[in-house]
Amino acid sequence: MKKEKILVVDDLPDVRATISGLLSDAGYDVRSTSNRSDALRLLRMDQFGAAILDIRLDETDEDNREGLLLMHEIKKDYPRIAIVILTGYADVKVVREALQPDQEGNIAAFGFLEKTELDQLNDYVARAMAHTMVNSSSSTRNLIEQGENERVEFKSSICWDYKTRSADKSIKSAIAKAIVGFLNSKGGTLFIGVADNGTVTGIEKDLEILPKKNQDGFQLELTNIISLHIGVEYLSNIHSRFEIINNRTVCIVSIEKSPTPVFLKNDDNKLWVRASNSTRYLGVKAAMNYIETNWKKTL
Questions:
Q1: What digits encode the pLDDT tens for the residues 42-81?
Q2: 111 and 173 assigned to the same domain
Q3: What is the CATH number of the domain that holds 136?
Q4: What's the maximum distance between 2 C-alpha atoms anywhere in the chain?
Q5: What percent of the chain lies above the pLDDT cut of 90?
Q6: Handedness of CA 68, 69, 70, 71 (dihedral sign)
Q7: 33 and 153 in one domain?
Q8: H or E segment to which residue 11 belongs
Q9: Is the same domain home to 30 and 99?
Q10: Do 255 and 121 fall within a single domain?
């Protein structure tokens, strides 16, 4: 059985070693680091079930809130990750901020644990992951039920054609086009394993024909599509995870808006954008106006 991965972020080596040891003894696969930037790098490279974050990632700086900043970044880009805030400080203001609901009523961190309570860590982490998984699945179902829109698109598969019941390479181009559309617009979410009408098809048919027939193989196929059709430089804007919906596996791809215009390779420099519930390309004049409006400060 594959071990659940946990990320530990604390600037004190002894604390990292203690926490990592406790979690490893409980059967978790642990990665640890001392700072926010390296934590973000690890998050881009792997899939984690939980993150244990120290509020202050510089114990000498009482105003340091790097841990809270990291917490909000994880919640935004990796909502499936359960977050536990860990600190040695009795800071009521910081505790309230960590557990403050956003406008939609969502709380970034599952809870707050003091470093004197590490004997409760394993139980706390298990409950946090269970809680986050339930809420994440519920949220995903709600998004699917609402249907495609400016920020959401569905694709039945990454390479399997349900009509011909065979592999179809053109589907990969459609996946790349959808991702580029979100990169050039406000960002969004691509659900792979969901039909246009919202029926959950799952990615199981894809897994049957991929060289590596598991989620890692699917992730590799997605990375190859992005690299070949869009460019490796945009991988940092694209994050994927897997969820079980209606007993089928769905790949959820979160895409951030690119700071510069993005073009598909070998596509005559067409600018694809997300408009309403579809992805479409703009003519030369429209593309120039769109670029001027959306990126004039960065070009």
A1: 988 787 888 999 877 776 666 667 888 898 888 888 877 8
A2: no
A3: 3.40.50.2300
A4: 63
A5: 44
A6: positive
A7: no
A8: none
A9: yes
A10: no
**How buried is 299 (Cβ within 10 angstroms: 0-12 exposed, 13-18 middle, 19+ buried)?**
exposed
Q: Which of 82, 109, 143 is the last residue of a domain?
A: 143
Domain count, the chain: 2
Query: pLDDT tens digits for 207-249?
Result: 999 999 999 999 999 999 999 999 999 988 888 888 888 899 9
Instruction: Render the burial of 119-153: b for 16+ CB within 10 Å, e for the rest.
Output: eebeebbbebbeebeebbbeebeebbeeebeeebb
50, 264, 271, 284, 294 from 289: Cα distances, Å: 43, 19, 11, 9, 9
Residue 26: what residue type? A
Please give the residue range of the domain that contains residue 78.
5-143
Look at residues 143, 169, 189 and tell me which one is the last residue of a structural domain: 143
The full DSSP string for 27-86 is: T-EEEEESSHHHHHHHHHHS--SEEEEES-SSTT-TT--HHHHHHHHHHHH-TTSEEEEE
Rounded Cα distance, 39 and 10, in Å = 10
Return the amino acid letter for 160: W
Instruction: Supply 92's token pair.
Output: 């009521």
Half-sphere exposure of 213 (CA within 13 A, CB side): 4
CATH number of the domain to which 164 belongs: 3.30.950.30
Verify that 134 and 159 share a domain, yes or no.
Answer: no
> 187 and 59, same structural domain?
no
According to DSSP, the residues that pair with 248 across neighbouring strands are 245
Give the CA distances from residue 22 to residues 7, 16, 48, 233, in Å, rounded to whole numbers and listed in that order. Answer: 13, 10, 17, 37
